[in-house]
What we know:
Blueprint: E1 3-6, H1 13-32, H2 36-58, E2 62-66, E3 70-73, E4 76-79, E5 83-91, E6 94-101, E7 108-111, H3 119-135
Antiparallel strand pairs: 1-2, 2-3, 3-4, 5-6, 6-7
Amino acid sequence: xxxxxxxxxxxxxxxxxxxxxxxxxxxxxxxxxxxxxxxxxxxxxxxxxxxxxxxxxxxxxxxxxxxxxxxxxxxxxxxxxxxxxxxxxxxxxxxxxxxxxxxxxxxxxxxxxxxxxxxxxxxxxxxxxxxxxxxxxxxxxxxxxxxxxxxx
Length: 152
């Protein structure tokens, strides 16, 4: 099973806004009676940027892709067996989810501000569940084992 987490779409409204501003400049140039070449250049450029902005808003970039055997964060794949811990840290860009790996100098950071606010808790829980499954850990339900379950 694969779960994909994408960036907040609101981070990319500026691209659409820039395209619309350039389209507005094309309209002003047309109203002023400037040559059609100048108007068409701004119209084409503004249209392309606005369409690109709409595309990015519809399908924001992927931040993390969780699979059964590995995790891919910003294009870098790491097997679950190499991840040792999941937690939160403060960085210069705000709070981030950190995946500590067996290589001490290579933690994987997922800035919380990149994610949709409702996805942060879900992502943390899923990360911990996948990490526990990869290392064979189970959640203790608080009950004592049966007498039939002898020590190994």
